[in-house]
Amino acid sequence: MLLSTFKIRNFFVFNTLKLMRNVSAQPNAASTETKKPDTLKSLSVSEYRNVYVEFLPDPTVEFRNPIREKLERFDMLARRENVDIPEFYVGSILAVTYSDPHSLGKTNRFVGICIKREGCGLRAKFLLRNVIDQQGVEVLYEMYDPSIIKVEVLRLEKRLDDELLYLRDSLPEYSTFDSNMEMEILPEGTPIPINTLKVKLKPKPWLERWERKNLRGVESIDVPDYVLEKAKKVATPWEKHDLMKQYMKTIPEEEQITIFNEIQPQLQQLELTRKKLKRKRSFIKPVKLG
Amino acid sequence: MALSLIFKQTCIKFLEDKFLGLSIQTCSALQIREKHVHPQPRLRNPTWFTKKNRVFHDDFVTSENTKFIQEVLEDQYKTPTKIELPENTIQWTPGLRRTGVIARKIGELPMWLKNGKKISTTLLQVLDNHVIKYYSPEEYDPPHKRAVKIKKKAGCLLIGAEATDPTSFTKEYCNLFKNTGVMPKKYLARFFISPDAKLAPATPITAMHFAVGNYVDVRGKTKYRGFQGVMKRHGFKGMPASHGVTKTHRRGGNIGGGGEKGRVWPGTKMPGHMGNRYRIAKGLKIWRINTKYNVLWVSGIGVPGATNSLVHIYDTNLPLRQPTKPLAFPTYFHLDSNVEEDIYDESLHKFSDPTIMFEKEKN
Question: Per the UniProt record, which residue ranges are transmembrane (chain A) (predicted)?
Fold first, then answer.
């Protein structure tokens, strides 16, 4: 049970969830053959916590209040009826269209890789990064900002790390994405692919001490031995075994189930409309762009 | 004869001396040091200050009896008491002061305006407020009298919030609610009001007491931060971290001059206890009201107190933020009427509205 209460970003859970996805995908595929194609199996409650991460409240005990959380969820669902916020992860490539108060009557579209997701509830944010004209650009979007017109996931995938902030110090080609990139559509029921790309860091100076961050998506870091030794000294490898710490940082599973059961009808409705839209599109083979 | 007379006189004189000595002694014991000779009025607690919580003993009450107690309680408070509407109510005018409410700070959330601007708001949940008692200005006799005579004397309204099982309270505390017919409340608060704004006992007060677009003052107890230094307590800048600075990075520095003023002046900002004091955040705008859960969205994140702590909400007394439309006076009574679940300010974006598009102004 405790294992299941781990945060979704935990790597171990990623593997287990992948298995779960596969398991749940098999009967789905079978049912589509036998039953009418209209009956779509919705996501199970255990999968909601990956897709709708921000619906889980801040686990800090002193900030919690059930009524506030409920009102917050109502507002989030009300906003989601007006804008389709799809499932995405850190490492996915997104395109955000938003109306800009500084250019009246026009819209703005930004394509970039999601390098960070933070906050929960109405405060949820995501950070997009791209390199435009040899200049790194990052835009922090509020998920429930009413001036966001459209969020498209151009490439749905995960990376090896929870945060890709090291892309700021890596070679620019790793965070360069064509703004005319076309949407890559995964066939239904496939697990979320994990991109095992290892990026190359630029030589120092860096923005952060990446050798201390225990990064998996980075090629071997070139630093002197004494720096590595120092990193070893300040490392806290026992923290991943600290069950109490993990527990305090997460919402218990029972509570997650009650939360998602409460909002399931509305979420299902949203999913149905999304799936109807999806079926209208044809499958396009992924093409590699610059 | 003469001898006896002399003896008597000496005896009396001796006694007189003795008494004189005694009287001097008593005089010295009763010395008065204060300037004002009249005795200061003794602080006395308000009438509703009684011991609240009962000490729980092992009563060995059988489960049947506890059930019976529950039934009796349910019967007693099943039918809500009839609310007496005040006779010949008057319309609100700027001079009149209404009652406040007891609320709970339940958190902070961002909201967006129709012009796309993000604002931060604090959510205040108005608890199940009921009027317990009204003290007229004559009845409410404060122990400390002011030197200046007050022309418009205020009455005092006692309000309770959060109905609780009365078996957890003492008998004296429960007696406060005896004549009202409402369940004993966990929290009590007094509000000074104009005598015209008085309310009958058991009158409920909801979030509809306030209106969207008006301003309120919120009083709460700030978080206790203990003994704090000058940087945290008063926002001093501290001193440089380097450039030869030693042992003085977070210290306040000089606290006074020399010469004639060579002393520490009263009110000098220094380290000390921080927080755990009642403070009022004034002039907060009400952006939105949820009538189902009785929640007010109030501007800013400066409401004193932690999340889930109690606050008192009053109509603001800032002269430039007085309401333009008349308020519900003495309170909102049409509780049965159908009102919208969410009432928004005109400039606030509803989440159910379509996406904001910044259009060019058509001339």
Answer: none
